[in-house]
Amino acid sequence: MGVRGRLLLAFLAISMFSLIAAGSGFFSLSQVGSALRIITEQRVPQAISWLELSRQTERVVRAAPAMLLVNTENERSEVSARIAFHAAQIDSILEHIRNFSPEERELKEVQISALVRRLNGNIESLDLRIKERLSISTQKAKLIRKLGEANKVALRALSPGARVLGAQIVEWNRGAKTEGESIKKLDEQVALAGSIIGLIPQQKAAVLVDSLHNNLLNITTAGTAENVDVLMFPLTSSLEELSEIAKGLPERAKRRLAKQIKVFEDLAVGPKNLPQIRKDELAVVAEAEELLVTNLQLSKFLTDKINDFVQSANTEIEESNLQAAAVQKFNNNVLIGVVILSLVSSFLIVWLYVGRNLVARLTALSDSMLAIAGGNLRAPLPAPGGGDEISRMAEALVVFRDTAIEVEESNLREIEEARRRLVDAIENSSEGFAFYDSQDRLVICNTRYRDLLYPDADIKIEPGMAFESIIRTAAENGHIVDAEGRIDEWVADRLKLHHNPGEPKIQRRSGGQWVMITERKTGDGGTVAIYSDITDLKQREEDLTKKSNALEQLSNQLAKYLSPQVYDSIFSGGQEVKLVSQRKRLTVFFSDLAGFTDTTERLESEDLTRLLNHYLTEMSGIAVAHGATIDKYVGDAIVIFFGDPETRGVKEDALACVTMAIAMRKRMKELNSIWTDSGLEKPLQCRMGINTGVCTVGNFGSEDRMDYTIIGGGVNLAARLETACPENEILISYETYAHVKDQIECQEEEQIEVKGISHPVSTHRVIDLYENLGEGKQPIREKMPHVRIEVDVNLMTASERREALAMLREATERLSNLDEKA
Predict the structure, then answer these.
(1) Looking at the 3D structure of the chain, how many domains does it have?
(2) What would the pLDDT profile of 653-698 be if each residue is shown by its tens digit?
(3) Which residues, in sequence order, are bridge partners of residue 781?
(4) Angle, CA 702 vertex, CA 696 and CA 706 arms, to 5°
(5) Shared domain check, 800 and 713
């Protein structure tokens, strides 16, 4: 049997104890779980259901007395619905108890159901009694209202006699107090006494009516049937006496009183008399109270029964708990024994077999394997034998060791051959190659590296030399141009670049040689360096730079003959140099100097040239600053346009052109001051004309000589405006004015006749930018979807300003009225 079989047998023995422990634990848990299931699924819910049944029964019994206090059908319905809800809960609980077990179901059918049915029957009977009491109360209320009406009618019939009797008694008392009565006065007293005696029965009848009314009312509130009988005796006597007195009353009072006496008799002894109704009501109330007492007794009996059932459930729960505890204790003892046996057997297995046999042999085998892994292929190996897995591992290790020795010898041969090939490849490379280890010690390099580092010098470079020593020797021997006079500083910079290599570096050597150094870090911290001779490439680069500088100088000279925009467009490739043109809307500017011919006669040619160049230079600078395209100079005249080859939009181009003209006019005043101080007798006056319109722009001329310019009616109109313009002024066409009027103050001038245009041309003279005019002189312009205001106060007369103010006030009032109405 091998190691696997022995260990398997030992593990099976230990696992047997584990299975015994698991089985014991499972049995214990099943017993405890069964007990808990009986408690949680049967006994506890059963006890809770019995208690809930008891509480619902008590709620029904407590709610029932409220039935006696209701006075209306709505109150009865509300109380009855509440009691019915609790009764339904009782039925639901009984249905829940039915599902527990046959014993509880039989017990419920025999004992509880009878009590619940009787309780529900009593509640239904109580509800019927309350309905009956409410019906009797309604009937009693009707009879009481009828009694009140009869009492009022009877008293109204007897009240005249009572009032007369009272008045006559007062008269009698007044006559009795008079002294010195005459015979006539005595006769009046006798007659008055007779009248009083005749009215006494009516007074007595009124007293009897009031007594009947009070007795009947007392009967309606009597507490018992015996009290009703006691009150009936004086009631019948009063009825008989009232009937006798009514016979002696005057005929009219007798008739009216007889009807009310009949009503009193019906209410007292009739078929539906008040005493009998009160007795019926008392009987119904007595029955209802008896039902309440019965319900209370039933509830108490039911509660006692339920308490017995709950106590029985508690007893069963305690028994289940004791049984589960006993099973658990037994199984705990079993588990403790199994654990002790498992520990003893595990210790014996580990000590006798694993420790003394397996571990010792495996340790020896492991030590041999670690020695081989460390490179000691000649380390001693455990002797194979025993026929088990460890012995086979020892045999395999011997085979592995022998194979490793053969592989090692073969690899050494291959490494030596590969190293020789690598050295040959490096040596034959046209680039200088060197490899430094992580300590910056030279590992290998080729001859080309030595030649580039020390040209024409007999200096040896051997593996193991420090990088700093190698480069310092090159610097000290004058091979590095940048290191001359600063060897230590250069060596420090070179070491910094060597430790943190990045992009290739170009190094200038003595004798006009250039070397490009490329360094890269290896994974082990070493450095690979490639030195490339780029002397030829550097010479070609210098030749190309000289030619580029010459071309740039020529280009800068040509730029002075072209507008900056045209120059940039041609040299950036945005525009081809060929005979093409296009139609565009441009803003064209013409200017010249008035009286310049007279000035030329008074100045020498050199002064005139200097003056003209100064003027054109200043104006051109302003034009370029505003983005203008300078078309040409014609003597003292300047032609400028906006909108090609670049445009910011027709409106913005027109605004830039007029703004430029204003700046030129301002600068012209400053130049006149300078020229006057320098000896110019008569100041120069400038005229400017501007027009916005469609023009043809492009290259015109021949294939050999062309000019980038503009032609068309728009150009001619700008020239005519300049001719018609006063000195030191700016004259613009209406279209230009339409584009700039929001930001520039202009004044309308007379229309002019222009050759080539059939209709007169409207013109405007430029004043200045609104922002330069100062506060209060700028026009008012506001625009909204339904509102537009445009007011130029500077051009308005006094009457026009008054009319405008009136219009604005009227509009303000109308808007205010509409706002108030809204």
Answers:
(1) 4
(2) 999 999 999 999 999 999 988 988 887 878 888 999 999 999 998 8
(3) 790
(4) 60
(5) no
